Amino acid sequence: MKKKMTTHFLFILLHLLQFFAVRPDDSICLPQKSLTCHNDFSHNITCIWKGSFDSDQRNNACLIYAEMVDRWQKSYKFKYKHSYNASCELQSFDSARPALKKCSLTFNGTFLFFARNGVLMNLSCSSSKQNETIFYKPVCHIKVNPPGKPNVNQTTVTWFTQVKKHMRITDFLSELQWKQKDKSWNDPIVETVKRKCKWECEAQLKPSLLMKDETYEARVRVQAFYNDQSGKWSEWSPTESWVSQVGSPKPAS
């Protein structure tokens, strides 16, 4: 494994020289192609890759090696005592679509990403000719962690946009959904409210949309805004359930 890491490191150094000679405009968010990644704008990047036929062969390990690069410092290893790098092995995660592979790059530290920096990634497979080098800008593909479970006090719902405050992002769009417990989240009658908030959020449920003594469920998700960039929706929070003490009388069974 150490030998593989050394090989990847040397490969990255060669591409760094090419990259800074023909580097794209730092303000441009380049489209993602076969390798799509989102990040928490802190230290974790999760990537999904649509592999080729060769990459699906048994004993063919496909790895991503990544190194953070800075607009002004060119490489973090020149700015700090050590270089910020990470690697992961792509694994199939969907039996219905085995060509899709996924892994997460976790850098040592927290809140390492800035608007100005990027990540140079090299994807390679051990027993095939598959090899890609990608420049990735974290600020262009933010997907923050989901919020915590919302708190419901009759018709008042409160929540925090993140379980722990995000040190880089302060502006969020929140989406609150609630429904009767026996209904599906895909049901068209699911109620939705959106709120722009920073850390603490609150929404009021209309009593006319509730039924007394009925059990309800609520969940929230958030979308981050940073440096004129809007992120992707987070995953949904854990679900909170409660029995409404207000609303229309529950029909007799």
Q: What features would you describe in this structure?
A:
- With 253 residues, the protein is mainly beta.
- The protein contains two helices and 16 strands.
- It has helices at residues 2-21, 76-79, and strands at residues 35-39, 44-50, 62-69, 85-89, 91-92, 100-106, 118-125, 131-136, 151-153, 156-160, 171-180, 191-197, 200-204, 215-226, 229-233, 240-243.
- The strands form four sheets. Strands 11, 12, 14, 15 and 16 form a five-stranded antiparallel beta sheet that branches.
In short:
The protein has 253 residues and is mainly β. 9% of the residues lie in helices and 39% in strands.
- According to DSSP, the number of beta strands is 16
- Determine the structural class based on helices, strands and strand pairing: mainly beta
Q: How would you sum up the global shape?
A: elongated
Q: In which range does the helix fraction lie?
A: under 10%
Major β-sheet annotation: 5 strands, antiparallel
**Low-pLDDT residue intervals, each spanning 5 or more residues:** 11-24, 74-82
Radius of gyration: 23 Å
SSE diagram, text form:
Elements: H1 2-21, E1 35-39, E2 44-50, E3 62-69, H2 76-79, E4 85-89, E5 91-92, E6 100-106, E7 118-125, E8 131-136, E9 151-153, E10 156-160, E11 171-180, E12 191-197, E13 200-204, E14 215-226, E15 229-233, E16 240-243
Antiparallel strand pairs: 1-2, 2-6, 3-4, 3-7, 5-6, 7-8, 9-10, 10-13, 11-12, 11-14, 14-15, 14-16
